[in-house]
Design a protein that fits this description.
InterPro entries: 6-blade_b-propeller_TolB-like, AB_hydrolase_fold, Pept_S9_AS, Peptidase_S9_cat, WD40
Number of helices: 11
Pfam families: PD40, Peptidase_S9
Shape: globular
Keywords: Acetylation, Hydrolase, Protease, Serine protease, Signal
Largest sheet: 8 strands, mixed
CATH superfamily of the domain at 405-660: Alpha/Beta hydrolase fold, catalytic domain
Mean pLDDT: 93
Protein name: Acyl-peptide hydrolase
Low-confidence stretches: 1-13, 15-22
CATH topology of the domain at 405-660: Rossmann fold
Distance between the termini: 54 Å
Organism: Spirosoma terrae
């Protein structure tokens, strides 16, 4: 080889090495990646099982909001087709049972209300089918594709005056406010049937009761639906399954008689039975409960409770095409897996499990299913599940993940001071030195009846990328560990949960994971509430970030949307004042708090109103404890504006960095 040839070869090799290094070099995830993350939702299987539609939501940075478009992927995963692409969101795609159309909901072309649009699968632009003047809450095709059952909310005429000034809110009902909905006056959601060819809308139900979750019988003659028709539905959760002929003027038949909730009906393909979810307990308030899979004859009678002995929450009941079995998703100790019940003998089989979380189950054929699956390193993607074996269909997040290095995620079990075993999840920063103690953030989930799972967790990944070990604690009150574990905190908030958080803290310090002098705590909703309870109990945490929380629980009666829960669980404040004051200890004993705390809230939150954060901020400000109050304009309980989502994480990191990091670390 000549000197010139050698030089060219070396330069080429150097260039290739540089390109390879550029391609493979990873970087930590950062809050700006919130703008890059897309989300998948609502998979729907075509009647022939060959295609699956789904929604993809992405951030429009110029409008600072998310926009969703519709996509379709083939069963073999080899083809992916974008169905819509416009400035307005499209959602809730549904195949017509004859396979000719894909319908969806959109307020495109300046419509003030969401309308149903039809996309002919043979080609062409989508055409608007409906011209609704009120809110469309749900819709479902009839089996012959000639009709569509709709759930429509009664019109609100309060702002119809020429001045466009809204009339005063006038409430006379027990439950008069709700997050997002705001103040609730009169008005209900009712069933209608829309004739696709004639564009005629017939009213099926009227009155003061809500009707939801309609499903057609396979022969197309009847609808099953959910309604609470007790004397005062605001005061209980006693929903039942009803059946009626799908025609104007038809009578309704009450199918279930349980005094708890019955919901999520789904008709068996052979038309003989209806599967649904039933509460474990009867009675009034049922927050600390878990749904059981039930099956009842279409004619009524005594239901079969298939999952009663499982002692785990089940959801998303989905009939197999042969009507012999029902697929369910089961929440079980940091995972959600796919299981199946045989209707005839109640035999239960785990079909697909692991350290991951399944959602959005859909039946395809035989032993084939479609579901969303997420794991700690991958946001939710669609999978075909064949004989229990998942096969990935979509790759929406490949571009998002390609440049990122993510935290490692592992589970661990800690013991609380009363001996309770608590399941937790630990996030370690990517490339964290082995054996080095890290500043640690306990980021506590809300609910309280939910659980942290082995799924992709953007907030905790972002905190870990900031150089922190991050701990998720499935404290008592969480689900996935059985009904007794969930009910353990009934009328006893801020006691056992705090024990569980402190037990997890003891564990990570003892194991040399956390630096005991550099630990922080935070969370949103019940996670914010538990942050307040914890810092009022123990001073070991050197910084806190309490979001959408509360402490002076007595002040929430009538100002949030949980009056029914309070009266059932705690008793009326004027009858059981001592209980209310006991549960308000973070505010009433605020002088015990030494932790610098940032409080965050949403301006229009009716779930946990902004007052809960304002009161604690004012208390700490008066006491001279470092504090800050952040309020997000126009937001409800959940933050939806992308720039606010980024701002929240930025502020978490800035606050914790200020108090948890030092030159000695």
């Amino acid at each position: 080889m000549t000197n010139r040839s050698l030089l060219i070869w070396l330069l080429a090799l150097s260039s290739f090495g540089s390109q390879a290094q550029t391609i493979t070099k990873k970087r930590p995830i950062n809050p700006k990646d919130i703008y890059r993350l897309q989300t998948i939702s609502d998979p729907q299987v075509a009647p022939d099982g060959k295609w699956i539609t789904y929604s993809v939501s992405a951030v429009d940075t110029t409008k600072d909001k998310r926009n969703s478009d519709l996509w379709m992927v083939s069963w073999d995963g080899k083809e992916s087709v974008q169905l819509t692409n416009g400035p307005e969101s499209e959602s809730r795609a549904r195949f017509s049972p004859d396979g000719k159309y894909i319908s969806f909901i959109s307020s495109r072309q300046g419509n003030t209300k969401g309308q149903i649009w039809l996309l002919d699968r043979r080609g062409g632009e989508a055409k608007k089918l409906t011209d609704l003047k009120t809110d469309l809450e749900d819709y479902v095709w009839s089996p012959d594709s000639k009709k569509i059952a709709l759930v429509l909310r009664d019109p609100d005429y309060a702002d119809s005056a020429k001045t466009k000034v809204r009339k005063p809110y006038v409430m006379d009902r027990y439950h008069f406010k709700a997050d997002i909905k705001g103040y609730i006056e009169k008005g209900s959601s009712h069933l209608y049937v829309y004739d696709v060819a004639d564009k005629k809308l017939d009213t099926l139900t009227t009155g003061n009761y809500d009707e939801t979750s309609p499903v057609w019988s396979p022969d197309g003659t009847k609808l099953a639906f959910v309604s609470n028709r007790s004397d005062d539905p605001d005061r209980n959760q006693n929903t039942d399954i009803y059946v009626m002929e799908a025609r104007k003027g038809a009578a309704t038949k009450k199918l279930t008689t349980w005094t708890g909730y019955d919901n999520s009906p789904t008709w068996s393909p052979d038309g003989k039975s209806i599967a649904y979810l039933r509460s474990t307990a009867s009675g009034n308030f049922l927050m600390y409960d878990q749904p059981v899979l039930a099956v009842i004859s279409q004619d009524g009678g005594e239901p079969t409770l298939l999952s009663k002995s499982l002692d785990r929450p089940v959801r998303n009941p989905t009939w197999a095409k042969d009507s012999k079995s029902i697929g369910v998703l089961v929440q079980d100790d940091r995972q959600t897996y796919l299981g199946q019940y045989v209707v005839a003998d109640g035999k239960f089989t785990k079909l697909a499990t692991g350290q991951k979380a399944f959602s959005n189950l859909e039946a395809v054929s035989g032993s084939n299913w479609v579901a969303m699956i997420s794991d700690p390193q991958t946001p939710g993607e669609l999978y075909a599940i064949e004989s229990g074996n998942p096969r990935r269909l979509t790759h929406v997040h490949d571009t998002f993940l390609a440049p990122l290095e993510l935290a490692t995620v592992e589970g661990f079990t800690s013991k609380s001071k009363d001996g309770t075993q608590v399941s937790n999840i630990l996030f370690r920063p990517a490339n964290a030195p082995s054996g080095k103690k890290l500043p640690t953030i306990f980021f506590i989930h809300g609910g309280p009846v939910s659980q942290d799972e082995f799924s992709f967790d953007l907030t905790r990944q972002l905190l870990a990328a900031g150089g922190y070990a991050v701990v998720a604690v499935n404290y008592r009150g969480s689900n996935g560990r059985g009904l007794d574990y969930t009910k353990a905190i009934y009328a006893d908030w801020g006691n056992k949960e705090v024990q569980d958080i402190l037990g997890a803290a003891d564990y990570v310090v003892e194991k040399g994971i956390a630096d005991a002098e550099h630990m922080g705590i935070g969370g949103w909703s019940y996670g914010g509430i538990l942050t307040n309870y914890t810092i009022a109990t123990d001073t070991r945490f050197k910084a806190a970030a309490s979001g959408a929380g509360s402490s002076l629980q007595l002040s929430l009666y009538g100002s949030d949307m949980y009056t029914n829960q309070y009266e059932t669980e705690l008793g009326a404040p004027w009858k059981n004042t001592e209980k209310w004051l006991k549960l308000s200890y973070p505010f009433l004993k605020a002088d015990r708090i030494k932790t610098p705390t940032m409080f965050m809230a949403s301006e229009k939150d009716f779930n946990v109103p902004v007052a809960g954060s304002e009161q604690m901020y004012q208390a700490l400000r008066s006491l001279g404890i470092p504090t800050q109050l952040i309020i997000y304009p126009g937001q409800f309980h959940g933050i939806t504006v992308p720039s606010y989502q980024k701002d929240r994480v930025d502020r978490y990191l800035q606050w914790f960095d200020k108090y948890l990091k030092s030159k000695t670390l």
